[in-house]
Amino acid sequence: MKKRRNIKRVSSIVLCMLMLLTAIPFATVTANAAVTAIIKEADTEVYVGDMFNIVAEVNGADSDETFTYQWQARLLDREWLNLNDHSDNNKSEYYGVYTNHLQMRITRKASGWEDVSFRCKIKSSTGKTYYTSYCGFPTVLEKTDVSVIAFFDMDAPQQNKLPPTTATAGNSKYYTFDRIEWYKMNDNTAVKLADGEKITHGIYRCQLYFNMQRGYKVADSAVCGLYNGDYDDKLLKDETTGQDYIMAYYNVKDETPVILQQSDSKMIYKGDTTTFAVIADNAESYRWQVKRPVSVTGSIKFRWVDLADRSDTCFTYSDSATNRLSIKADTDFNPTYFRCKVMGKNDTVTYSKTICLSQIPPGSVVGKIICSGDENDITTLKLRTHSDGFVSNPVTLNVTIRSYGFLQLERGHYSLEVSRKKHITRTYYFDIDKSEVNLDVAIAVPCDVNMDGIINVVDATLIQKYIVGLEDFDSYTVEVADANGDGVISIVDATNIQKKIVNLL
Ligand SMILES: [Ca+2]
Ligand SMILES: [Ca+2]
């Protein structure tokens, strides 16, 4: 905060004034008696650093008469010399030399000024020339030093906001606020902000212009401050206007959220619930969006629409204002696009990439039918879904061929009951968890233990092996092998099969 004042010295001084004058030939002009040129106003006291003002006026001229002006000065009673204007000669301390208002910047006190007089030579459009009376140099006073220049109540510049334009002078007895200019620093180049241009982020320079009250000046060793996150502030003086200003820098942080991780597109089954998530830095809030067709003057366009925690035609949403959106697919749906709007401080926004939710297409179950009997006999297949203890009504398929297929099946747990004339009905359980499930089914007539369509000694032998533990049967085979139907596999069943072979049963 404490910085040495940067002093801009003006090179030329009033003592050298005569060097700036140009000699002119002495001329005597007779003025129109009805017209007078006068010194209307002249400062009698001027503080060092301020302008000394003299104003000339022509009285009694015709209304259509126009004038050109040339201010002149002389030392003691020497000849009058024309003054040079600062606009012609930047070493000149004079401004407005060719107007009716002469100004002279008083840069310091100097001896000899009390011997200088000023007058204005005025030429009329009628060709006549007038001279004002003359006036002397004003009393030059020293200003009082002010050692602290401070401004309060200025907001620090913030991303996505207009730059602050006001501040309150710390002591209005000595100085008053004028205006603020803002510059964006691009490398080492300062680019002035246009009207209405908002702050983005990066380094900004503030130039707060102020006016010293009459009789006061900024002390060479003065310190300054804007006191709101500024740095490197210093007091400067505008070289052209002489106005004092404070220059300070601000580093405006980029508050835009940065997405670190996000979900990829997903495929789910109808009825499933899934989540999409983002992880972001600088996030203050979230809002998930869905891309929806919108009819615009006869054509369909897609627009991002904010989601709420509710159902639409296909989905039920929850946690749509968090970083994890939950979506339940209530019905069949087309591929649907989502994204997350991640909001940070100062209205900053970042969007996640677009992610697609698609439906996994329905599955199927297909397989061979292994059985025996007449070619024209019908095999009946009854497909049921099992979910949460509930069993659906069957979808029935009657076939004479030795294969079957059920298509367009949702994911889930199923049972398939296979029945056929003389055969023992068999039920299979399976899951549809991919697009095509292969399931060969095999049924048999009683006693055909190996299910090869023939009842012979092989079947009886299998039972004998089972009894001594050399063979293992599943529950269906047990049913087939239980020839006498007593629920137990015993030597009686093997004997019964042997008798059946020789037609005793
Ligand atoms: Ca057999
Ligand atoms: Ca038995």
CATH fold topology of the largest domain? Immunoglobulin-like
Derived structural class? mainly beta
Poorly predicted runs are 1-32
What's the architecture of the largest domain in CATH terms? Answer: Sandwich
Summarize the main sheet. 6 strands, mixed
**Helix fraction?**
under 10%
Tell me the layout of helices and strands.
Layout: E1 36-42, E2 45-47, E3 51-59, E4 67-75, E5 81-82, E6 94-95, E7 101-105, E8 116-124, E9 129-131, E10 135-136, E11 139-141, E12 144-152, E13 168-169, E14 175-186, E15 189-192, E16 202-212, E17 216-225, E18 231-237, E19 244-252, E20 258-262, E21 266-268, E22 273-281, E23 285-296, E24 299-306, E25 315-318, E26 324-329, E27 336-343, E28 349-351, E29 355-359, E30 363-370, E31 379-387, E32 390-391, E33 395-399, E34 403-409, E35 412-420, E36 426-432, E37 436-438, E38 441-442, H1 457-467, H2 475-481, H3 491-501
Parallel strand pairs: 2-11, 12-17, 21-29, 30-37, 30-38
Antiparallel strand pairs: 1-3, 3-7, 4-5, 4-8, 6-7, 8-9, 8-10, 12-13, 14-15, 14-16, 16-19, 18-19, 20-22, 22-26, 23-24, 23-27, 25-26, 27-28, 27-29, 30-34, 31-32, 31-33, 31-35, 35-36
Helix pairs in contact: 1-3
The structure holds calcium ion (2 copies).
One calcium ion (CA) binds at residues 448, 450, 452, 454-456, 458-459.
